[in-house]
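User: Sequence in, structure out. Go.
Assistant: Echoing your sequence, followed by the structure tokens.
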Amino acid sequence: MSNSISVNTRATPATASNDTAISASTRAKMQLNVSILQESASVSLNSENDPLALVYKSAITSINEQLEADFGPDAIQNAAGQDNSPEGTAGRIVSLSTAFFSAFQQQHSELEGDDALNRFMDTIKGGIEKGFKEARDILQGLKVLGGDIASNIDKTYELVQKGLDAFVSNQRQASSTDESQSGQA
């Protein structure tokens, strides 16, 4: 069962003369706010909707605003389709966060081997924990955190942890391989 909500965003005659005074940026923000409210109401009314899409939409708004001048409106959404399954979401979280390891090592050249890896993992795990908590809080506020949604978040979290463990294992294996090869040279 789907209930739609209509929000009239047309200017009334009393405000029509003020339209030119509203900047394009302000107008875009107002339209986005209406869109978010409609999506929020839709998620609240229809539990089959994907609330992770709402979280995603609100999280990338600022990035889209920054990219609009160079890439047009909705640059991120237009760049690629999005897999919001637990596997797809976990894969993005792991790959995007671990991609910064070499840059972290360069910035912290005083750390070597496991010390660098451990410090890096502590840093990104802190961000991941905060992100999952914030997402849960948003979904709880929308009163949609339960059932499949909660289990999908739990599954995503579990897959992220496994992905991070695999990253650490691969880094340690590569490090030990490098050390044994340098000892043979």
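User: And one key feature?
Assistant: The chain has two domains: 1-82, 84-185.
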